[in-house]
Design goal:
Number of strands: 9
Distance between the termini: 28 Å
Radius of gyration: 16 Å
Number of helices: 6
Shape: globular
Largest sheet: 7 strands, mixed
Helix content: 25-40%
Oligomer: single chain
Length: about 200
């Protein structure tokens, strides 16, 4: 008998919400592209995408956690309106809400969605992943050639509406210069966090 799909799981003092398995990128370092769906002993495959109400119920009392994080092995902003609805409700219940994203929501939706985040998200963690277009494209394999610039533009716009914006890059990827990535974050006047290869969250 198979286990029920995991909508929410606790790690590192946070509650992570598994919103979708779909993604806008095909990062070669993502576990799912090597057939690995179990991360930190949690199977993140979703046979069905949860509703906003199901996400809120899955969290339970948000006061138990430092943050509630929209994450998983997919891009949450592909389900932007579900994220916004659940995020607004969770914040009303006292949660600090973080959205982990590839920063391509404006490309996905064909408009600037950063103002929509204001009432639903306290923090953004945006996957910068590389210091230039060539390295980014090699590792992240975006379908849109403008993805890198769009992600940087998203980060710059988002800081007007989200109190805490952080760019992240995975240390250990060939050709990725962590210090150069940090300088990009400084130029955009946002935070920076070095991520570990193989760790989701």
């Amino acid at each position: 008998m198979s286990n029920p799909p995991v909508t929410a799981y606790a790690q590192h003092g946070n509650c992570y919400l598994n919103v979708t398995n779909r993604c806008t990128l095909r990062c070669h370092f993502c576990p799912k592209f090597s057939g690995k769906w179990v991360v930190d002993e949690v199977d993140l495959r979703l046979p069905r995408e949860p509703s906003a109400a199901e996400l809120v119920v899955a969290v339970g009392d948000p006061g138990r956690f430092r943050e509630v994080v929209f994450c998983g092995l997919g891009e949450p902003t592909l389900r932007l309106y579900t994220v916004l609805e659940a995020g607004t409700e969770l914040r009303a219940r006292g949660a600090r809400v973080r959205l982990n994203t590839d920063g391509l929501a404006n490309l996905i939706h064909g408009r600037d969605v950063t103002p929509d985040l204001e009432d639903s998200v306290d923090a953004l963690s945006i996957s910068l992943n590389a210091q230039d277009v060539e390295t980014y494209n090699r590792h992240c394999r975006p379908p849109n050639p403008d993805a890198f610039d769009a992600m940087l533009d998203f980060a710059g716009r988002a800081r007007e509406f989200v109190p805490n914006v952080t760019l992240t890059a995975v240390d250990g990827l060939e050709g990725v210069d962590i210090n150069a990535c940090r300088h990009i974050a400084e130029r955009l006047e946002v935070g920076f966090r070095r991520r570990e290869l193989g760790r989701v969250g």
